[in-house]
Write a structure and sequence with these properties.
By secondary structure, this protein is mainly α. Among the domains are: 158 residues, no CATH class; 95 residues, no CATH class. It has 18 helices and nine strands. A three-stranded antiparallel sheet has the order 3-4-5. A two-stranded antiparallel ribbon has the order 1-2. It has a two-stranded antiparallel sheet with strand order 6-7. Helix 2 crosses helix 9 and helix 6 packs parallel to helix 10. The radius of gyration is 24 Å and the shape is elongated. The termini are far apart.
Length: 427
């Protein structure tokens, strides 16, 4: 079953962004409960509402809640956690398995408020380039490093330097230099260093919950039959590498544990192709169904219907989707057999494009190459480049859109081939 049915395209703005609004309310409510209990003495049935901190807390003086990653660090440090802490970590672990591991990052972590603000300001200021380039999997190395440091030092290493812990302590017990350093450090990294630098690339806690999230029960469900591949979900996603449309279609849901379950993709999808649901109710192999519909329409002689039903996610030269991660390598490009095109020459297309739509009203290539935030940025291996500034113009609303004369990509760009050159070339 799907948790939500109302089409996003016809919904009000407030309804479409309901999950973002709900996330903010949850984050502020949890902070409010901690602050109210610690500083105002809030109680219920004579028991403190929510005492402790994010590492280890007690709900109504009865239910223990503990951070499983902190428990792992204690174990690596050679300490045996108390029974209540182990019990609390199992309760929290079970809850986030149901809700989706990284839902913690989007729905509870106070640092999410800081990083989202930095991203909003970054977009408003038009900051497109990154001073740093770090792979998103670096956070797993940081997590392993935190466990190793705990084993060497004999203490839970990350808990001593965690920006989230600094921010929480200062918000609950009073603002000070700890809060300023945590907030400003992460804010500066995300604003100027690299987009989503902390949460998306470095945070070891995010790495832990990404691992747990692989078995998360509540997931964004994906209906490939409704998707028109506008790529709005990819552009809005804080972790765009999780939006592999081919995998999502085959599984019926976004499977990556790094998915935040933040609901942004649901808010922007004009076709109502994404909704929260239970992974057990997913409808897998939708890609094959789309291909079957395409073949049936083509055999019936209905070219227009065939074009609408076709699947463009299985056209890579390496038999995998060019929209998945990792991106397929350019055919023989890195082996040195085919050189990069000279400066000023249209780039060669390194993957299959036989079934791509290239129309003035819709262009499949823009799914990867239509990101206005990456215009004229340096090329990164295995990462799609955005169209250069010469291919963009502004519409009546002042929004950047593809120039009308540039919609037919193959007018200038050709698909790479291993065919022998017809004439000798010095390029």
């Amino acid at each position: 079953m799907s948790i939500d049915k109302k089409p996003a395209a016809s919904a009000s703005r407030g309804y479409r962004w309901r999950y973002t609004i709900a996330r903010r309310l949850v984050q502020l409510a949890i902070l409010g409960l901690f602050i109210g209990t610690a500083r105002l003495g809030w109680t219920l049935f004579g028991q403190p509402l929510l005492s402790g901190d994010f590492t280890s807390s007690l709900l109504l003086g009865l239910v223990p809640l503990s951070d499983p990653f902190a428990v792992l660090q204690k174990l690596c440090a050679g300490h045996t956690p108390e029974l209540t802490m182990i019990t609390g970590s199992l309760i929290v672990l079970a809850a986030w398995i149901v809700l989706g591991g990284r839902s913690f990052c989007a729905w509870m972590c106070p640092m999410n408020l800081v990083t989202d603000l930095a991203d909003l300001l970054r977009t408003s200021l038009g900051i497109k380039s990154d001073m740093l380039r770090i792979h998103q999997n670096a956070r797993y190395a940081v997590a392993v490093g935190a466990l190793a440091a705990s084993a060497v030092s004999g203490v839970a290493a990350f808990e001593w330097v965690s920006p989230q812990a600094f921010l929480w302590r200062e918000l609950v017990w009073g603002l000070g230099w700890g809060c300023a350093s945590a907030v400003l450090g992460v804010f500066a990294l995300d604003l100027l260093g690299m987009r989503r630098g902390w949460c998306g690339h470095l945070c070891p806690l995010g790495a832990f919950w990404s691992t747990v999230g692989r078995v998360g029960i509540i997931r964004p469900m994906f209906d490939a039959s409704k998707c028109d591949k506008c790529a709005k979900c990819i552009r809005i996603c804080p972790e765009p590498h999780v939006m592999g449309l081919k995998d999502a279609a085959e599984n019926g849901f976004v499977k990556s544990g790094a998915c935040l379950n933040c609901g942004r993709c649901i808010a922007v999808c004009p076709q109502d192709a994404i909704q929260f649901g239970l992974r057990f109710n997913a409808k897998p192999n939708q890609t094959m169904g789309a291909l079957a519909a395409f073949s049936h329409a083509a055999l019936a002689g209905d070219a227009a219907a065939a074009l609408n039903q076709m699947d463009i996610d299985s056209t890579s030269l390496e038999k995998t989707s060019p929209f998945d991660v990792p991106q397929p390598e350019a055919f023989e490009m890195n082996a040195g057999k085919i050189r990069e095109t000279p400066f000023g020459t249209p780039a060669i297309i390194p993957h299959a494009i036989e079934n791509y739509k290239m129309l003035a009203e819709y262009n499949s290539c823009l799914m990867c190459h239509g990101n206005p935030e990456k215009i004229d940025q340096p090329k990164v291996r295995k990462q799609p480049q955005s169209m250069p500034s010469t291919h963009w113009t502004k519409n009546d609303k002042g929004e950047l859109v593809m120039h009308g004369s540039r919609h037919l990509c193959t007018f200038c760009h050709v698909q790479q081939s291993d065919a022998e050159p017809l004439v000798e070339t010095v390029h």
